[in-house]
Design goal:
Elements (H helix, E strand, L loop, with lengths): L5 H13 L15 H5 L8 H8 L3 E3 L4 E3 L2 E3 L14 E3 L21 H4 L4 E3 L15 H8 L14 H4 L11 E5 L8 E5 L3 E6 L5 E4 L17 H17 L4 H8 L4
Length: 259
């Protein structure tokens, strides 16, 4: 294994994107840069492969689409497309892109993976920071069409949020699941605006203080100072597992008191 010079990789990445107006070296951010995570981390991948992963991003603006360093033509509007069409731009998951020494998605519940973008054209003009679920797109799209789901579904239409009819949906937290994909164990996560707790079925738990540690870099799950917070969020998680009759609850409740 060899430790590569990630500083030089970053410089190549900057040069590659600055001329396209996508990346600006002078831009300031509190979030640790990728190279600060892995400058001395041994990789078996070649420097060129790492560089390819670093530029695996999609950036869109009103005039062009740039993907992996290449321009693609702006799609022509459909003949029957007009200003009343409603378009929802979102994704099924995020990508770490080097954050936490990780590439792509996987068995980790960091914000880079779970907090995905959603931009709506044609419904409303104000941003909304309410907690919503991706599966709520189904009742939302039906609501736009003026119909209701044929039977009850998980979640609710977010059209009132999109149209500015409601300031928020009253949801104070979210519950998220990960099901063995690429990995041997399941994960369950509950989070609000203050803390995030992750139950790793075959590993130690994770607890992040999102006010003090918004980038989830310090796991305080076993910090005595957070014992009461941990207990509170374990109970929150327990509530969801019981309500949903989640199979992950079997093992969770067996080890909950000493997890």
């Amino acid at each position: 294994m060899k430790a590569y010079d990630f500083k030089s990789v970053e410089k190549k990445w900057q040069d590659k994107w600055e001329d396209k107006g996508v990346f600006h070296a002078e831009a300031k951010s509190e979030k640790p840069k990728f190279v600060d995570y892995v400058a001395k981390y041994p990789y078996t991948e070649t420097e060129e492969l790492v560089q390819q992963k670093l530029v695996k991003v999609l950036v869109s603006d009103s005039s062009k689409t740039v993907k992996s360093g290449k321009k693609s033509k702006k799609p022509e509007p459909e003949e029957d497309e007009d200003d009343e069409d409603e378009i929802i731009y979102t994704a099924d998951h995020g990508d770490c892109l080097g954050a936490h020494k990780l590439i792509e998605k996987g068995a980790f519940t960091f914000q880079e993976i779970y907090r995905i973008p959603m931009v709506v054209k044609g419904a409303g003009t104000k941003d909304n920071d309410s907690f919503v679920y991706l599966h709520e797109m189904m009742p939302t799209i039906l609501d736009v069409a003026g119909v209701k789901p044929p039977k009850p579904v998980d979640g609710e239409s977010i059209l009132p949020l999109m149209m500015g009819e409601k300031a928020d949906n009253g949801r104070e937290e979210v519950f998220c699941e990960y099901h063995n994909h690429f990995y041997i164990g399941r994960q369950r996560m509950v989070r609000d605006l203050d803390y995030q707790l992750t139950f790793n079925e075959s590993e130690r738990g994770e607890l992040y203080d999102l006010k003090k540690d918004p980038y989830q870099l310090k796991n305080v799950c076993y910090d005595p100072a957070y014992a009461d917070v941990k207990k509170e969020y374990l109970n929150k998680l327990s509530k969801y597992l019981k309500e949903l009759n989640d199979p992950a609850g079997t093992w969770f409740h067996r080890i909950k008191e000493f997890y």
